[in-house]
Amino acid sequence: MNATSSRLPAAAAAGSPAPSSGRPSVIQLVFREKNALYAAYVPVLADGGLFVPTTRDYRLGEDIYLLLSLPDDPQRYPVAGKIAWITPPNASGGRTQGVGVRFPNDDKTRALKVKIEEILGTSISSSKPTQTI
Fold first, then answer.
1. Alpha-carbon span 130 to 18, nearest angstrom
2. pTM for the full model?
3. Where are the alpha helices (H) located in 41-124, listed in sequence order?
């Protein structure tokens, strides 16, 4: 998967307290290629979502803040999502450890979902394996 993921301490990202204070963690997720975006996108979630490779421990329903960069798009998209599923270390089928992030139900994120689906085009209905559920 050619997506770059790096955890940023919340304090460094927004001047807020560290995640141990109950604030959501911040993950920068950069997709340089359409294939990587396809492998991470979750169209089955009503509001959309993404798989985020990470070794950090999360709980279902936990808040997470993504700074998302899409292929050939200089803009970064902030997404305040929730953990929808967890892929543990050593998961069956050689799946990458990480979490599924459900997008919020708001106008800004609906526009982002449309943009992702436009980038993916017809490949969204491909049968190629992905990192998602």
1. 32
2. 0.75
3. 107-120
